TrEMBL record:
One of its GO terms (biological process) is heme oxidation. One of its GO terms (molecular function) is heme oxygenase (decyclizing) activity. InterPro entries: Haem_Oase-like, Haem_Oase-like_multi-hlx. This is Biliverdin-producing heme oxygenase. It comes from the Bacteria. Pfam families: Heme_oxygenase. Coiled coil: none annotated.
Amino acid sequence: MTRIDALRADERLSPTRTALRRATCAAHLRLHGHPSLAALAAGAITQEQYRRLLARLYGFHLPLEQALIAAARRHGVDRLIRARTHLLARDLVDLGADEETIAALPMARRLEPRGHGEWLGALYVREGSTLGAARLAAALDPLLGAGVLRGRRFLSSGDETVWRECCAALEDGAARGLLPEMTEGARATFEAIELWLADQNSTLSLPITVRGAAGKQIPEIDNC
């Protein structure tokens, strides 16, 4: 059994996390069917597709991370949040993206959890995504090469300790009667990323320029 399988087996023991997983299962499965995510999981994603996907994920995770950190400080639990969005920017640079263009990427509307329960639900989605991300990182071997961290820092950034801290916070929240709000926060976060990844109208005003290749440009990121 792998570390990820062990964590998932542990997750099945928790009624709280089982309830959250069931509440978000349909959205989770729909995301698995997203063309770029499906290609990534199959080890068949192209470099252009992957760049576009990373850019789109950056535009979602940066405002989400900022909102979660701000709310965590209000709740006095900022130790639960580990900044990771900068790793997406580094991955984009690794793949040839120009830093000015990264700064100009479109951003998703910032989620604003209305209370501690919704914040916990959003945290569950963010930290839980790192479990599957480890497998997606391994599926990049055909594109990036086996054992190469460059280009997949974000997907490789899961931390077992952080996940267990998150799980403990979820159990504490449920014990305080916050499970309905936690469920709403998790659903809202899944809905937001679904809409963001599916939005065909969010385009870049600038193409991503490949460093060291004068005049060579990657087509605009018009979807993922």
